[in-house]
Amino acid sequence: MDLPFIVATLTRRGLLTPGSPVRVASQLNALRTWGWSLAGELRQAAARDPGRPAVIDENGVELTYHDLLDRAERMARSMRAGLGVQAGDRIGVLCRNHHGLIETIVAATLLGVDAVLVNTGLSAAQLGTVAEEQRLRLLVHDDEFAERVLGLPAELPRLDERAREELVAGALPGDLHPPERDGRIIVLTSGTTGTPKGARRPTPSGFGPLVSIIDRIPLHARDRVMIAAPIFHTWGFAALQVCLALRATIVLHRRFDPAATLAALSAQRCDALFAVPVMMQRLLEVPPPDPRPPLKVVAVSGSALPGGLAPKFMDVYGDVLYNLYGSTEVSWASIAGPQDLRQAPTTAGRPPHGTRLELLDEDGQAVPDGRVGRIFVGNEMLFEGYTSGANRETRDGLLDTGDLGRLNADGLLFVDGRADDMIVSGGENVFPSEVEDLLAQLPQVREAAVIGVPDPEYGQRLSAFLALHPGETLDPEAVREYVRHFLARFSVPRDVIFVKYLPRNATGKVLTRELRRYYG
Q1: CA-closest candidate to residue 347, choices 364, 358, 335
Q2: Distance of alpha carbon 183 from alpha carbon 137, whole angstroms
Q3: Which of 247, 393, 507, 510 has its CA 20 to 30 A from that of 222?
Q4: Residue 14 CB-half CA count within 13 A
């Protein structure tokens, strides 16, 4: 990425403002010594703004950047001296959003240890598989997961919240030096169809990744930001990285509750919110506070935006919505701003600076605008492969996302869905997202999902699952007639099933394997 663009963007976002020469020198030295790892980002923030609030938890705990770094260093020293954790080991982190999660991840990177961010929605059996496949040396977990970890091997040390606090309080004095190897962050894929895979995240090598995001999403130094997206997910972790780089004040709640979130956004005077799309839906289901929170940015990612959600949200909270399309493997591919979402509410936007995006056919040739192709992406933060040794297909430095999409004449990207989610019914290709977006526009429908199920005549048929707003009813044949009016006959769901809610994982993605259980 070219230097003038980096400097211009950092200046525009307030990161190059003058400061104490001593603190600026200490800040730059922290980055030079520790790099752009999470440990380096926290160190530079503590060097420049030691007394600034770094984290505010829902229970009122407030830590400055100096305090947060001190606690992370204490934990690192205790893990090394008391538990024998050393560079190259892997520790599991099974925590919701709170300061202890951040301290644990930073402590790992200070030691050159890989931190495996464990999805809080995993079952006990999945957790056991992850512990074995990732060869965990230690598991740090919140108290609420005490029963879930009982089945893990007895030889795997476990730290609950009390034990973690004892490590911090009882740390012996000593120095920490940059480890011989960088500790990697291992993010588990969403696991909507089975046990998730571990994806190794690269450590940024400079300002490029940060600039790619904040150029398109107008976040500024020292903003106050609520991270509602789970930090164990790629999007939540990316939000944490951005916030530390910006020396932001981070507001965290362990669980998402729409009313509590709105109250915190107002009480803490938050400038920005990082969330997943289903959280936006929930926020619209409760009365907005008066006055509205002073939000300038609501940045969402993690799953597709349902049709009509973007304009509805902006009609209530203003044109502050930014939708990032990406994945654990490619980090980001494109970003849609408020103007894009007003123009085309389901668009994934355009690639940010420094990102290449191409739509290719099965032979690797570019497809024309309007035609569906496989989405390939190239940027500075492509993942380094799965911990199992497997990888994704690449072409000319671009990584296969596994998604299908198309570009319109204005260069806006539209994602039709996963390649393996495409339904072939009677020889016709149907993308579930197209039908889902249409069904979501029915006023009675709260949320909708469409899957393909085996059919003896057509190979597959469409099955629609609808969760209605309280007190609403719909007739299945009326639903089919509605779809028939707007789409081709092969897009009409043969089955219409009403459910109380759609099963989702912690990042808001619908668990299609749970829906298939309706068919045994």
Answers
A1: 335
A2: 14
A3: 507
A4: 10
Long-range contact pairs involving 357-362 (C-beta distance under 8 Å, separation at least 24): 357/333, 357/413, 358/398, 359/405, 359/406, 359/407, 360/395
The C-alpha atoms of residue 122 and residue 256 are separated, in whole angstroms, by 17
SS3 per residue for 447-477 = EEEEEEEEECCCEEEEEEEEEECCCCCCCHH
Q: What is the per-residue pLDDT across 299-331, written as a single tens digit (0 to 9) for each?
A: 999 877 877 899 999 999 999 999 999 988 999
Give every CB contact of residue 278 below 8 A, 6+ residues apart in sequence: 303, 447, 504, 508
Q: What is the pLDDT of residues 85-132, one digit of tens each?
A: 999 999 999 999 999 999 999 999 999 999 999 999 888 988 999 999
Residue 472 has phi, psi (to 5 degrees) of -95, 155
CA distance 60 to 424: 52
**434-to-346, 367, 414, 416 alpha-carbon distances in Å:** 10, 20, 11, 7
193-205 residue pLDDT tens: 456 788 888 888 8
The two structure tokens encoding residue 70: 């001190």
How far is CA 249 from its chain centroid?
19
Instruction: Residue 353: name the closest of 380, 320, 383 by CA.
Output: 380
